[in-house]
Amino acid sequence: MSRLCVHTITTKPLSLEQCLAEFPKRGVSGITIWRQALEGRDLANVKHQTADAGMEVVSLCRGGFFPAKSATVRQKAIDDNLLAIEQAHAIGSPLIVLVCGAVPGQALVESRKQITDGIAACLPAAEAAGVKLAIEPLHPMYADDRSAVNTMRQAHEICDALGSPASVGIAVDVYHVWWDPELKAQIDLAGQTGRLHAFHICDWKTPTTDLLNDRGLMGEGCINIREISDWVDATGFTGHREVEIFSHKWWAEDQSLFLDQIASSYGNLYA
Amino acid sequence: MSRLCVHTITTKPLSLEQCLAEFPKRGVSGITIWRQALEGRDLANVKHQTADAGMEVVSLCRGGFFPAKSATVRQKAIDDNLLAIEQAHAIGSPLIVLVCGAVPGQALVESRKQITDGIAACLPAAEAAGVKLAIEPLHPMYADDRSAVNTMRQAHEICDALGSPASVGIAVDVYHVWWDPELKAQIDLAGQTGRLHAFHICDWKTPTTDLLNDRGLMGEGCINIREISDWVDATGFTGHREVEIFSHKWWAEDQSLFLDQIASSYGNLYA
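YS: structure for the whole thing
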């Protein structure tokens, strides 16, 4: 369980304080904090709270959403990412996950260029703060308005275009990339290039009834999670395995029981 | 309008006879017939009916669904595809579109092997009947249970593995492939190899509220349909542009008005 991390969004009905109270009871050692969980809180205090709970902050979710048709809106996005970098630094998060963004009707190639430019604009601040950035390729079903980066290959291409700075890498989420025939090769490449910054797990249910909020608990679906996880570990990755589940179904359940299920499902997966 | 084709599933509430009465009124010259529209009908009569209506049968939808965990079930799938070939021949359809299939939890690589074997088993009958087969790459969001073929590259690989028979090609549906960064190159390759057998259009709505049945009429969404269509035409493709829309919203409308909208939307797109 020493590598189990849970995202605050996974147990969305719980406050950050409840997460910090409940997660450690199941042996969860890492927490990825979504920015909405920080609302109204003193960031230095959050850093102390997580340390007091014995939890490691694995990452801050989420930055990104760089593309926009107007330069003014693109600058606002960059400003928001600079704020995220300050927040990550303040709570002691070593990493920000980037959901890169897309604009319906704008060419994906143009959006990827704007994403590259947006990350470049944030890079000096990220490096100064000691905060890394992880491009998360999103499933192609989100190419309309959430991310123009839909494969690990594209994430690598953006890293290349940026000159391969050590602070920019990739977040691999099995939900988004499990179908990709190049997945193993691209994970290997991420290992070789030092870009494998984060690893997220959940499952793909059949049927999936909602494009956003019907993700499955590990074991509820068809993804070869353990195999992908082994590919990730084979690169030398020793970071947390982060449980990130958006699910109307699970959010409607008792979150204490849900956390029990997460722990047992994780235990089965890595038994 | 000489290249406009409509799928019977697009106007699902209409019977085949109603389609044959209504489509030509809007200048629709091609019809792709879904197998359920043939139920209870004499196939030779369907061939005469479509000819009498002045409509060209563009293709029969759909064969495929080859993968299964048991060999018995795989053989049943092959038998069903052989039946589809007989049906296509009987109604005068030169083409069958293949939704290739997938089995939740079975490795996609294994499913693609079973798809290749399944097509190989049907090939002699297809060639004897003069019916072509078109592999339709499906969007990665259908990789769990509908198709392990999710990119044009994979469809090409299956054609290659079969030894590139002239009767096996690819159906390009903008809904499934619009996000693919390799799309133009793979369409070019399909042209060069004589594999571009069919071209389907509709649109991707933002938000999309249902994974299966929330496709948009051309213009309702974000797909660069005209650009992709121009890539297709640039290969020398002169076949029909087939409007294939699965939509609870449109099926609930007056189908006569919907057909008017299809015709005007198509007219705007190719003005």
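YS: worth flagging: The CA atoms of residues 70 and 76 of chain A lie 10 Å apart.
IM: good catch. Also The mean pLDDT of chain A is 98.
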